[in-house]
Amino acid sequence: MKISRGSPEQQLHLLLLLLLLLAGVCVVGYKPVIIVHGIFDGPKQFKTLSLYISKTHPGTKVTVIDLYDNLASLKPMWTQVQGFRKAIDSIMRKAPDGVNLLCFSQGGLICRALLSTTPDHNVHTFISLSSPQAGQYGDTDYLKWVFPDCVKKTVFRICYNRLGQKVSLCDYWKDPHHMSRYRQGNSFLAKLDGDTPHNNMKAWRANFLRIKKLVLIGGPDDGVITPWQSSHFGFYDSNENVVEMRNQEFYKNDTFGLKTLVARRAVSVCVQSGVKHVHWHSNFTVFRTCIEKWLT
Ligand SMILES: *[C@@H]1O[C@H](CO)[C@@H](O)[C@H](O)[C@H]1NC(C)=O
Ligand SMILES: *[C@@H]1O[C@H](CO)[C@@H](O)[C@H](O)[C@H]1NC(C)=O
After folding, report:
1. Residue 102 belongs to what H/E stretch?
2. Could you count the other beta carbons within 10 Å of the beta carbon of residue 155?
3. Is 128 helix (H, G, I), strand (E, B) or coil?
4. What is the 274 CA–ligand 2 centroid distance (Å)?
5. pLDDT tens string 182-206
6. From CA 105, how far away is CA 161, in angstroms rounded?
7. 88 C-alpha to center of ligand 1: Å?
8. Which of 69, 146, 178, 235 has the most CB atoms less than 10 A away?
């Protein structure tokens, strides 16, 4: 029996169809990327990064959430978490295969809080780009812009009370010399880390653990995140020596799931030197080395 192989024209059509199908599979393969900006910035600052993503992974849907931009980024962290949650929810709902979340600086803490307090999220990879995950304690330009009359030693007096907690920076300001004041007066990071006990901790941990991958990016020349190791969950002890993630109480107690993620080999740490804080998202070497491979 002779098997009909079709005319050359038919064969060409079949080949084209196959190529289209393959291309389609590739395009569909990239999960949507949601970007959450940091303090004093907004979507404008993330145009380069969006371009990097669409150039290297054509067809990826990239959304930089246009909320709490610039000065509005000083609003309380929990308020911002609610706002970002609404925006991100509607993107997640249209992405049955899940989304990837890339969050810069203060945005990294907004995202962590959002992941811990959203039971049904479908975030696959959470990329924390130079974010003060373990808190912030340093005399930086940002501190001067928010509290011109303060130095790091005195900020706790302003931050650790009801009024102070209405400023985002205070919500993750962690003064290693006043930890009991921090535990009493901080209503955001201390709660997220389980430093102040509350009944939701177990549920928050389970929510956070829905992610499949956590990518922590930061480096010693950042100049803003202080100590810079906070981008990898390290922080000062009471002598301002840096204690690495594995020796942090929240890690050892696995209060919010970090230790479990490490045990699952789901945490990737990327340290890059020579990168200033505002350059993380536009540096192509950083994108190539630390980000690109996770955006699948
Ligand atoms: C960690 O566990 C120890 C011992 O159970 C407890 O004393 C401490 O308060 C816990 N710390 C945190 C941050 O959960
Ligand atoms: C970009 O990142 C690399 C390290 O990944 C660093 O050596 C270089 O200085 C950075 N350039 C800028 C302009 O930030």
Report:
1. strand 99-104
2. 22
3. strand
4. 5
5. 999 999 999 999 999 999 999 999 9
6. 23
7. 33
8. 235
Give the fold, CATH level 3, of 31-294: Rossmann fold (3.40.50)
CA distance 279 to 134: 21
User: In angstroms, rounded to a whole number, what is the distance separating the alpha carbons of residues 126 and 153?
Assistant: 33
Determine which one of 57, 121, 178, 277 is catalytic. 277
Is the minimum distance from the CB of 194 to ligand 1 under 6 angstroms?
yes
Predicted confidence (pLDDT) per residue in 67-91, tens digit: 999 999 999 999 999 999 999 999 9
Type of residue numbered 100: N
Q: Catalytic one among 57, 131, 222, 230?
A: 222
**What are 212-260's pLDDT values in tens digits?**
999 999 999 999 999 999 999 999 999 999 999 999 999 999 999 999 9
The 3-state DSSP composition of the chain as helix, strand, coil percent (nearest 5) reads 50, 10, 40
pLDDT at 28 > cutoff 70: no
Q: Is the CB of 251 under 6 A from ligand 1?
A: no
Residue-level length of the chain: 296
220 touches 242 (CB < 8 A): no
Backbone φ and ψ of 215, nearest 5°: -115, 120
Domain range list for the chain:
1-29, 31-294
How far is CA 249 from its chain centroid? 21
Atom of ligand 1 nearest to the CA of 195: 13
97 strand-pairing partners:
none
Residue 12 has pLDDT above 80, yes or no: no
Side-chain half-sphere CA neighbours of 114 within 13 A = 28
